[in-house]
Amino acid sequence: MTTVDGRRYAVFAALVLGLGVATRAAAQDGGDLGIAIGAKPPAVTIEDLDGRPVDLGQVMGKKPVLLEFWATWCPLCEALLPRLEAAHSRYGSQVDFVAIAVAVNQNQSSVKRHLALHPIPFRFLWDTNGNAVRAFQAPSTSYVVVLDASGKVAYTGSGDEQDIDAAVRRVVK
User: Fold this and answer.
1) How many Cβ atoms sit within 10 Å of the Cβ of residue 144?
2) What is the pLDDT averaged over residues 2-25?
3) Distance between CA 6 and CA 10 in Å, rounded?
4) Residue 160 contacts residue 25 (beta carbons within 8 Å)
5) In this structure, what are the phi and psi dihedrals at residue 24, rounded to the nearest 5 degrees?
6) Whose C-alpha in 87, 139, 143, 157 is 20 to 30 A from the C-alpha of 32?
7) What is the mean pLDDT of residues 150-155?
């Protein structure tokens, strides 16, 4: 990606993610928000917080996965956190919980600093070039995608009023 393309992505992502923050709780169940229910997202490569490549295909399709598109500056992400932590406490042995830190107005160092001050019990990945945002058609931060054990989308939603427990229950046997 060229610098110009990177700037275009950053501006586009900021606009898209900003629009999502303005929508307080657009929780949904298979509507028009992001990737379609039943879809199998493409495997994309992003990074861990140390810059090592991570193939999301290695995460999907083994057991259920909850992905949250997240940012240090996202008030809806912060408000949703207690629901995510409660679901993680209840289902963490059956479901992989993964936060995907978007590369808009933050960097890997700022995410690490935030997590050092405010530990969150999930795995954190870094969406350097927006590969995951595009693959999952993430319209905003606080966007949650729950995948079943086969890697198909079982739930999508955005905002701080999502019923995360009910979303995860759909994919737990």
Assistant:
1) 26
2) 44
3) 6
4) yes
5) -55, -50
6) 87
7) 96
